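HUMAN: I'm a chemist; might I ask for a sequence paired with its structure tokens?

ASSISTANT:
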Amino acid sequence: MATKSSSSLPASALSGAGGPAPQYLKVKTHLREGIAGGRWRPGERLPSEADLTEAFGVSRMTVNRALRELHQEGLVERVQGVGSFVAQLHRIASTLTVRDVHEEIAARNHRHEASVHVLETLRADAGQAALLGLRAGATVFHSVIVHRENGIAIQCEDRLVNPACAPDYMDQDFARITPTHYLLEVAPLSEARYTIEAAMPGALEARLLGMPRGEPCLVVKRVTSSQGRAVTAVRLVHPASRYLLEGSFQA
């Protein structure tokens, strides 16, 4: 972890004491906004508790509460005797934008099973290549996996993967570990773009999910990147009658 010294506190940290907000919340908001705005980058050290105490004119306990809550939210890592650091991007982004279907199902105390129907290397057509920022004809990995909850199919995952970001993708046992889990390990997430829409399943999707072609689905399309390079593009198809998409976000 980098131990780069933080820049000096901006004047707004010294003059923003007005208003009814609790003192700890002012410290927390200042640090959160600084992280979001890039004042402190992932791995960089935040101002010390002593610096924050002096800047805001508050107690050490107040500053400690602000840092503790940011740590609980996954934005800050604290190292005893060293200081507080901005958490790495993949820890933040994976919490906010990408959910592993195995973890979703396990959180409900249900059984997750996965069956791999396609695992292949192919030459990307123009559309596939564009999703991953590659040239047409480039080699990509392709997988189609059905996820089941207590034996009932709830998701058909059709995924393209950039081999440069995950060269060992084809060697994984995706009946044991999900592609999402594996890819977050080998290519930490820095950005995710997605769309959510209602649509009818394709013929293969309907067959794999055991549903009629006329039944609507919830379709999530997502492209994720690491360090400015597209890692994977995935289409997740869920029978609308069997799946509820939910989550939370805190800015």
Notes: The chain is about 30% helix and 30% strand.
